[in-house]
Amino acid sequence: MTEQNNEVSALAERLESGDRRAAARIISMLEDNDTGARDIIKAIYPKTGKAHIVGITGPPGAGKSTLADKLTRAVRASGRSVGVVAVDPTSPFTGGALLGDRVRMQDHFTDPEVFIRSMATRGWLGGLAKATKDVVKVMDAMGKDVIFVETVGAGQSEVSIIQAAHTSIVVEMPGLGDDIQAIKAGIMEIGDIFVVNKSDRADSARTVSEREMMLDLNQSKAAWRPPVLQTVARDNKGIEELLVKIDEHMVHLRDSGQLDDYFKKQVRAEFEDLLREELAKYMLEEYTAKNVLEKVLEKLERRELDPYSAVQQLMEPLCKK
Amino acid sequence: MPKKIRVLIAKPGLDGHDRGAKVVARALRDAGMEVIYTGLHQTPEQIVETAIQEDVDHIGLSLLSGAHMTLIPRVLELMKTNNMEDVTLSAGGIIPDEEAEMLKAQGVVGVYGPGTPTQEIVDFIKNTVKRK
Ligand SMILES: Nc1nc2c(ncn2[C@@H]2O[C@H](COP(=O)(O)OP(=O)(O)OP(=O)(O)O)[C@@H](O)[C@H]2O)c(=O)[nH]1
Ligand SMILES: [Mg+2]
How far apart are CA A96 and CA A80, in angstroms? Predict the structure, then answer.
């Protein structure tokens, strides 16, 4: 145990000094849910909370990785360091994953101020958001100034990843015509900046005006009206303007006090999630060990008991004052 | 959750075909591994740095350019400088037998010639990683 503690604190120390191998190792421990993972987070937590976390989401092939690549270049030119977390789906059939986002980011592989990590969604079922947040924490503790998180914008866990970012960029491309999909996915609500990439294509202006119209319909009292920008990521066009908006959004968050709210919300959500998870795990283990769970489940199967009463019964000893 | 095997498939050198590399990458994915694919024209420096950041268990190089006797030793050298004793390296491509032996003597764990069944590569990498 102490040996492991020593290993953990050594890793945490190396991480703080920017050691890439330590960072890589720690991320793997978090991904594998290794027993040391929890201690790592304990050790690095005080060092986190400094980076600007920018989510990049959108349909497959919209140009998210290309944008992340060009944005990385622009952020580096401004003298800041960059972390990139690129999430790709795990095959539900084989458990394997092909992580190809790096293909677009080759220019930065040997820049010591850029750290890129590819992540597979694995079988997390909602835990993905937690794993991603933890990986972001590692890069944050490592001292990266701006952290890009790329995910395909589909499904609840992706939405919650993006909600964990300070600034969320929704990337679209002309000619998809999936306005209804966008509303359904709740993407209109989470986007702080909308980007119509591949604006070298003919119908890009229409996509922009459609998006503008929807944002006007969606108008709330919020002080930040999400801008709609055009880029040609492949040709590095519109990237400077996009970075200006990203930085402006952070200034807006700070000036309006929303950044404080953001931290409050994040801290609370994270704490509640963890408490819920640990509590449920503890209870299940306890009642399994005491052979109670099996009996309760049998009663449920025979319809002699309903799930609400079952949970209430199991909770009773906890609720005693 | 059991630990996933992570493999980097990289294409060093100047040749412009990555069909073989992609076929292998897909086969490894289908065997349940997480495969990081980085595209064409990688320098040994880029390959080793990627392997570090992605914390892979194994690096698979795919070469057709004939420059294997300079590129592969360079990758091995960089792996040594970075103390990556826990990462293994294999290579696929047109590599004559005597050169394959030389590379193995330097630390490459496997060399696959053209036409090697992908299942053989999958099994080889699985066993190599498991043995560590
Ligand atoms: N015409 C055009 N093509 C682009 C542009 N930006 C990116 N592409 C191309 O679009 C394809 C997909 O780009 P990626 O950056 O990989 O897209 P992605 O959204 O990250 O894709 P996934 O991660 O697979 O969902 C590549 O072939 C890019 O070269 C652009 O502005 N114009
Ligand atoms: Mg991508």
Answer: 34
